[in-house]
Design a protein that fits this description.
single chain, four-stranded mixed beta sheet, 8 strands
Length: 137
């Protein structure tokens, strides 16, 4: 009897924190540090617009002559981020993330952001799968 392949919904982080595209890069940095996260979905009028990483924020804040209060997330975010439905097969998402060097996948259902799956979530998923495969009797 074979086990059903896990889906991304089982391992994603639910209800990810977001900021609006008009928020400052400085606000994003503060939120990301407070929550200890490295990826932040960006919304525009309640609709998923893009994503920023901690690296994007640090690069933007390091630009000579940039004003952190005036620089907006819309100016630096990656539009059209990698998105998957909650029932996407775990291995397919992992393959795509590895192949494209994505740090995260946004989980979207009915055009609504319902979760985020990051490289940290991938490590947890891999650990859980290994435990189930090799340590459960």
């Amino acid at each position: 009897m074979s086990k059903e392949e896990p889906i991304i919904q089982k391992y994603m982080s639910c209800e990810p924190k977001t900021l609006e595209a008009g928020e400052s890069v400085e606000a994003a940095e503060a939120l990301m540090q407070k929550l200890k996260i490295r990826h932040l979905p960006v919304m525009k009028d309640g609709v998923l617009y893009g994503i920023v990483s901690d690296r994007d924020v640090k690069m933007a804040l390091g630009l000579v002559g940039s004003s952190p209060q005036l620089l907006k997330l819309a100016d630096i975010c990656h539009e059209k981020p990698y998105q998957v439905p909650p029932d996407a097969k775990l291995h397919e998402v992992l393959d795509e993330m590895a192949g494209q060097h994505y740090g995260s996948a946004l989980v979207v259902q009915n055009k609504k952001l319902v979760g985020i799956f990051t490289a940290i979530d991938a490590c947890r998923a891999f650990s859980k799968v290994l435990q189930q495969r090799f340590h459960e009797h």
